[in-house]
Write a structure and sequence with these properties.
The structure holds two protein chains of two kinds.
Chain A: H1 2-23, E1 48-55, H2 56-60, H3 63-74, E2 77-84, H4 86-94, E3 100-103, H5 106-114, E4 118-133, H6 147-156, E5 161-163, H7 169-181, E6 190-192, H8 197-207, E7 210-214, H9 215-222, E8 229-232, E9 239-247, H10 257-268, H11 270-278, H12 281-284, E10 290-291, H13 294-303, E11 309-313, E12 319-321, H14 323-327, E13 332-337, E14 343-350, H15 351-358, E15 366-371, E16 376-380, H16 381-386, E17 391-394, E18 400-403, E19 416-421
Parallel strand pairs in A: 1-2, 1-3, 5-6, 5-7, 11-19
Antiparallel strand pairs in A: 3-9, 4-7, 4-8, 4-9, 4-10, 11-12, 13-14, 14-17, 15-16, 15-19, 17-18
Chain B: H1 2-16, H2 20-53, H3 59-70, H4 74-85, H5 105-130, H6 133-141, H7 146-156, H8 158-173, H9 177-183, H10 193-203, H11 206-234
Classes of the chains: A alpha+beta, B mainly alpha.
Chain lengths: ~425, ~240
């Protein structure tokens, strides 16, 4: 018996040794294309490591997996992503445990910089938050314009609301909205989950509760069967800008200040920004993040001359034309009444054909006509698409005016610069 | 329910098709926990034997410490190791080459060693105390040195010692809090089974989460099967 036992014990040891050696990066029989590991620098010289502290939204949505390989290849660097709440990400920077941070909590980012924890901060992109709820919307907040009013209603009706409760950027935003509503949320209905966005969405889905989410994670989760629906969106308060910051290399000799600078330069460069803008379009029919770095904004401003026309929002192909480009399109004449009530002939381009070029998404329902002075008016998308005679007429002083026969008078928008689909 | 079935099917497929992402995680888990268990065994078995067999002042106190360590919440261990290694923490600012950096495999191994060692000590301690105390006396009377006598007792208590190792392994391979905190769940670097399951669930990749979960279950089952096998032989 004893020898048999000894044999058994030896087998156990052998199994372990085998397991351990099988795990060394040089010999992994089962994993055919062995991905790079920290222990195995690539053949082309020493691979550098850059630690990126970021929020769960950039990582869980898949954005970083989509854009980072370009940087890793170009700079022979392995970017180690630590995806946590914004609070922890900022703490990683303060303690010098990360080289560069990509977060979304503007006020706290500014404080981080002011306290000398970082040496450089740049805008990167933005997405927006949405208030989500069960499809039957027991609290009746669907379609509200003001997010603070919607939260107030949730508090009044004691409707279950799940909060991230993890000091993340999303949580900061939520606290800001409650403050805006003048409410200190507390009670059985207010559930502080202390978890990431995906976990909170699943919880809200299971419990038929309301919650606040970034649009990117929400869209990604809907593909996985999430049934919550958007209740409130489009409020400027729900705007969610992301910033990137290098951590002050004086904190620790291991912090890679130069590489972090290169990373920022790469992240805000036009090609990377284009890639950020393209991410998710194939999957969701809409971009998850909107590029917004300084170089990107400069390039956009330079590319879009005055009097230009653009179609934005829920479209497959956002469009932007110069005035000359519009005038070069097929024009048509329609009769309409001028402000003095006299009938006049207007020349212009059919709005329907412009929208067809932009391909509104199936879920879109509304068209917003936006003037250069900020005036805007909303119309049902279906009615606009059905209108053969609705045109962008050319103004003698340059620019466009919408001429919408059969629509109310306030849809004649002078100095129209943008058609937003939503 | 559809999600579960589809996940199970896809999970099995990933598992047997040798999906590189999945297998990389499985192998890293085995590596981290394997190294941690080896270190815990080297530290814990001798220590446990000494506490179990010898009488010294303060033995009760040391035993109480060990029992406390056995029930130590892994997240607290994670927090402690984090604070120890953080560049703004206790050892981190020294920047000595042999101190593991946060978010690396050695940091995870350190946390797991701290979790597993008290378990190995505790179980070993209990196993050697069960051996008839007369054995040791007889051996000493026959002229064995204390070390030889201890070795003989350990051999007699080997089943208990193996249970100690299996128990230690079970506790670290399935632990998630500490490895998330000190490892950071970095792809290709510190992502192990438990942290990957958390992440993929968070991301909504249920099939991958289920596949990884099945591996973890299978590992736990194999470990227990081995243990049962040994216990059977002991009878």
């Amino acid at each position: 018996m004893s020898t048999q036992l000894k044999f058994k014990f030896a087998t156990l040891l052998v199994v372990w040794v085998l397991l351990l050696t099988a795990c060394s990066p040089t010999a992994a029989p089962t994993a055919a294309p062995v991905p790079e590991t920290t222990e195995a620098p690539s053949e082309a010289g020493e691979t550098q490591k850059l630690i990126l502290g970021t929020t769960t939204s950039t990582y869980d949505s898949g954005l970083l997996d989509y854009i980072l390989p370009d940087f890793e290849q170009a700079y022979n660097t392995q970017v180690e992503v630590i995806a946590v709440g914004t609070g922890q990400a900022l703490q990683l920077g303060m303690d010098g445990n990360a080289d560069v941070l990509l977060v979304h909590a503007r006020a706290r980012e500014d404080a981080f910089m002011a306290e000398g924890h970082g040496v450089r901060r740049e805008d990167v992109m933005y997405n927006d938050f949405v208030i989500l709820g069960p499809a039957n919307d027991p609290a009746g907040i669907r379609g509200m314009r003001k997010s603070a009013r919607a939260l107030e209603t949730l508090a009044e009706t004691q409707s279950p609301f799940i909060s991230r409760g993890d000091d993340s950027g999303t949580h900061s935003k939520e606290k800001g909205l409650w403050a805006e509503a003048g409410i200190e949320p507390a009670g059985d209905w207010y559930i502080s989950a202390g978890q990431g966005m995906g976990a909170v969405l699943s919880m809200a889905n299971e419990q038929q509760a309301y919650t606040l989410s970034d649009r990117a994670t929400y869209l990604a989760m809907t593909l996985e069967g999430l049934e919550l629906e958007i209740m409130v969106e489009g409020d400027p308060l729900l705007f969610n800008p992301y910033g990137v910051m290098t951590v002050n290399p004086d904190k620790n000799p291991n912090i890679k200040g130069d590489l972090a600078q290169q990373f920022i330069d790469w992240l805000i460069s036009i090609p990377t920004q284009e890639k950020i803008g393209a991410f998710g379009v194939d999957k969701f029919g809409a971009p998850l993040f909107t590029p917004d770095s300084q170089p990107w904004r400069d390039a956009q401003a330079a590319a879009a001359p005055a009097g230009a026309m653009q179609i934005t929002g829920e479209v497959a192909q956002a469009q932007s034309w110069s005035e000359d480009e519009i005038k070069a399109m097929g024009t048509m004449d329609v009769e309409g009444q001028n402000s003095d009530g006299e009938t006049e002939i207007y020349t212009g381009v059919a709005i329907k054909s412009l929208l067809e070029l932009a391909q509104p998404n199936p879920g879109a329902s509304t068209v917003v006509l936006i003037a250069d002075d900020g005036y805007s008016v909303e119309l049902p998308l279906a009615d606009v698409m059905a209108c053969e005679e609705c045109i962008l007429s050319f103004r003698s002083e340059g620019g466009f005016t919408s001429r919408m026969p059969g629509f109310p008078k306030n849809t004649t928008v002078k100095g129209l610069v943008e058609i937003q689909v939503k | 329910m559809d999600v579960v079935w589809a996940g199970l099917k896809e999970g099995l497929r990933l598992l047997f098709a040798g999906d590189p992402y999945l297998w990389e995680i499985v192998l890293l888990s085995a590596q981290v926990s394997g190294i941690a268990l080896t270190i815990s065994a080297l530290l814990g078995i001798p220590f446990g034997a000494i506490i179990g067999l010898t009488h010294f002042p303060g033995r009760r106190f040391v035993q109480a410490l060990v029992y406390t360590g056995m029930g130590f919440p892994p997240v607290v261990v994670g927090l402690a190791v984090y604070l120890l290694l953080s560049r703004n923490g206790i050892l981190g600012p020294l920047n000595w080459a042999w101190i593991p950096q946060l978010f690396t495999v050695p940091a995870m191994v350190l946390a797991q060693v701290i979790i597993a060692t008290p378990l190995v000590i505790g179980y070993t301690m209990a196993a050697v105390s069960e051996v008839d105390p007369n054995l040791r006396l007889q051996l000493r009377a026959l002229g064995a040195t204390p070390r030889q006598a201890t070795w003989a007792v350990l051999r007699e208590a080997r089943l208990g010692v193996i249970v100690a190792l299996v128990g230690g392994l079970g506790s670290i391979v399935s632990e998630v809090g500490a490895v998330t905190m000190v490892g950071g769940n970095i792809e290709h670097a510190t992502r192990v089974l438990t942290t990957a399951i958390m992440l993929e669930t968070r991301r909504g990749n249920m099939d991958l989460a289920i596949g990884l979960g099945m591996v973890l279950l299978a590992l736990a089952f194999m470990v227990n099967l081995l243990m049962a096998q040994f216990q059977g032989r002991g009878k």
